[in-house]
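The instructor's notes for this session suggest beginning with a concrete chain rather than abstract definitions. Hand out the sequence below and ask the class to guess, before any prediction is shown, which regions might be ordered.
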Amino acid sequence: MKTTPEHNKRIAIMTFSSVYLHYVNKVEKKGRTQEELHQVIKWLTGFDEAELQTLIEQKINFEEFFSKAIINSNAQLIKGVICGYRVEELENPLTQKVRYLDKLIDELAKGKKIDKILRKL
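After discussion, reveal the predicted structure:
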């Protein structure tokens, strides 16, 4: 399934802080912790808790968020469908990174073990 330029632009300008609280609520409702959420975010982006908090306070958009991130070299191992899109087939690099994050958080909320989420082989 291809994304449209409008869809990609909408994702790029969405602020990370506006979505972050949804991530927290999603994982906590399923019995996971904010610390586990931060562990998953750090694995994908390289941001530690202090950096993450600063980015949230700055209300940066996803384009800025991922331009500052150091994407984990194993991120390409993230596969599957999230929000109706197969993440490994997304052509727009930014949209793919956002969907990688969504997929990891979805796996966390579904109770998958951290080692599996972090693609530890």
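Then share the key points. Helices lie at 5-13, 16-29, 34-45, 49-57, 62-68, 93-109, 114-117. The domain at 5-114 is CATH 1.10.8.290 (Helicase, Ruva Protein; domain 3).
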